[in-house]
Each structure stands twice: as structure tokens, then as C-alpha cells.
Amino acid sequence: MTLQQFAIIESTLREGEQFVGASFTTAQKIEIARLLDAFGVECLELTSPLASPQSYEDAKTIAGLGLHCHILTHIRCRIEDAQKAIDTGVDGVDIVIGTSSLLRQFSHGKSIDEIIDLALEVISFVRSQGVQVRFSTEDSFRSDPRDLFRIYEAVDRIGVHRVGIADTVGVATPRQVYDLVRELRGRVACDIEFHGHNDSGCAIANAYEALDAGATHVDTTVLGIGERNGITPLGGLIARLYATDPALVAKYDLPLLRTIDTTVAQMVGVDVPFNNYITGITAFTHKAGIHAKAILNNPETYEIINPQAFGLTRYVSIAHRLTGWNAIKNRAEQLGLTLDDTQIKIVTEHIKALADEKPISLTDVDALLYRWANGEGV
Ligand code: HCA
Ligand code: CU
Asked: What is the pTM of this model?
């Protein structure tokens, strides 16, 4: 149901700023905010205005840009934090507090009852100021589910707009996420957000399962940047949803994704990974002869994502020993050379033999094709 209605909370300007290479200038934050807004994300989450004086100023600046998306900021569960957040002019405040026994013992030292009392106080305050409020439990998957439900039900009763489940340490499996969200969906009336770290490689699958189980909001960052190895990447979530049904992500300006990924990569001093979802350099590159033949006949044979939907093109790699004669024939046609199938097959054997001797390039393939087309083949 909510797979059709989900919203993205893009947290590059909050969780993403917790990536070790990130230290965005105001101008960079504005550029990222504008790009993500143009892409069509529903919400942007900003670093806590309490983090530093510049963070406060930047939150004010971004809240004042007049973007289409909702501007949220992220705070600890404290009235002073909430006041400062509201002062920046944001549309909503995301509150988080640790609920695992580890965090209760080693971080804030509060009991579940104390957490509930505090949560009710801070949420009521934010609501009284006419601002949207979300309440999230840090390290949800290492918290006792009975504690979680008590907290979520209590905050739901007093009209919180959204509750958040956070897989802070990336420990959850897709099935655990599905089960927890499903159970929660039956217990609260408010929206449900999922925030998942990627320590064990499940962040995209977990976000997807959360939506499938009834979550309404998913947190992402560009390229997945965040604490440690980050959270659900924006492009990865889009790829997952597109693969289920392109209509699910038709509301976004998909061709902007490449610019978004490369812009943020550059700002934080990394390359877009070669195997990145959609925008990685090899995401639409086909190599083996069998694949190349089928792709040339009908790209859907080996592509669940249409690169054109993202303003990208596919590439068929043919200069190697795994190549096939159909791909070589296609190259000959591209070059406008007339060679019959028997000749193409012979050239293909030569290409394979050459590639067994040394790494070859497209130039070598072309040279062989020209030789045969000019009647100089042996
Ligand atoms: C953190 C906090 C958080 C918060 C998530 C949320 C997490 O940096 O540890 O507000 O839902 O992963 O728990 O990012
Ligand atoms: Cu996080």
C-alpha cells in the first residue's frame, strides 16, 4: 500500500555530514539542497542547529530558500534543543533518543519511563509551536520491542506526526525490519519512518521491507554517506523501487541522479563507486558474448533498469576474449563495414586469439574489422 505513497527524507545534510569526508560549506549545502529539491525528494533533514553556530545559520538559510520540499532538522530529546530548532524556521523537528540498554546505560542514563515522560514533554512543546514532530528511538533493533511499543504508543496518543525506527548499527535483517514495522503499523496511527545503516549490507533491502510493511518514510543520503559506511543510498533505493515498478519513482526527476551523485562525491572527496547503483561506471556495461547478443536484440534480457530513464546509455564491451560474433557484427555495422557472417566469425576468432595474448582495446577490434573489410584479412 505505502509502496505507492512513500516519501524520502533525504539526510545528506544531516547523516551525510557525519561521513568522515564531509564538511560542507554553506554554498555546498545550498547546492545539495537545491539539487535534491529539484530531484523531488519530499523532505530534507539538516544537521542539528546546536552542532555549531554555522550549523544554526545554515539551517536558517536553507529553511528560507523557499524550496518545495519540507525542511527538517534533527535534535536530541530536549526542550532547549527543540526551541533552537524551531527558531531556525524549519517545517519539522526530528527528535531521537537512545532506547537500547547499551545507550541507556552508557549514553543518557535514563529509564524507559523517564524517556516517555521526556518525549511527551518535548513533543507537546514542538506541537504547540505549530511545527511537525517526529520521534525516533536510536538503536531500535537492540532495544526491547516491548519498550519500543510502549514508547511509540505513548507518543502516538499525544499526536506525534511520525515515529522513527532506527537501525543505528546496521544489524537488522530485512525480515526483522518487516516484522517490526508490520507490528508497529498495527499499533500506531501516525506515519512511520525507517532509518537504516549499512554495516552488514542490508540498508537498501531493509528500507524496502520497511515500506512494504507499511512505513511511510525512508531516510537516504546521496551515495549512502554517513557514520561509518553510511545508510540507505538515495540511488540504491531508487534502483530497488524502479526494479519493482518504474511507476513508483516516476515522481522524481531521475536524470538528475547522476549529477547529484557526482556532485556530492566530489564534495566529500570520493569517487562514485564503479559498481554504484545506476550511476556507477559499469552499471550498464555488458561484456560476455551471450549477454551482448541478447542485449543488442532486446536490452530487457539483461537489464531491469532502463538507462535511458536516467539519461544514461548502455555500453557493450567487445574487445576481450569473452566476446561473441553478434557483438562484433554489430560493431562492423556501426563502422559501416560490409562483412558477411562467415567473415565476422573469422574476425571474432582472431580477436579472441589476440585477447589471449594481451589486453586489447576497441581500436584493435576496429583495425581487424577494417583489414577484413578491405580484403586484407588472412
Ligand atoms: C546517530 C543517530 C541516527 C538517528 C536516526 C534517526 C541513528 O547518528 O547515531 O533519527 O532516526 O542512526 O540512530 O542517525
Ligand atoms: Cu544514522
From this structure: 0.95
Nearest Cα neighbor of 100 from 91, 92, 89, 108 is 108
- Which of 155, 165, 195 is the best mutation target for the ligand 1 pocket, counting ligand atoms within 8 Å of the beta carbon and taking the most? 195
- Split into its structural domains, the chain has a count of 2
Q: Coil, strand, or helix at residue 43?
A: strand
Ligand 1: residues whose CB is within 6 Å? 15, 18, 74, 94, 96, 136, 138, 164, 166, 168, 195, 197, 227
Q: Give the Å distances, CA to CA, from 170 to 146, 166, 228.
A: 21, 9, 10
CATH number at residue 175: 3.20.20.70
Chain centroid to CA 253:
15
Is residue 135 located within the same domain as residue 253?
A: yes
User: Could you read off the pLDDT of 146-169 as tens digits, one per residue?
Assistant: 999 999 999 999 999 999 999 999
Note the pLDDT tens digit of each residue in 288-311: 999 999 999 999 999 999 999 999
Cα(145)–Cα(152) distance, integer angstroms: 10
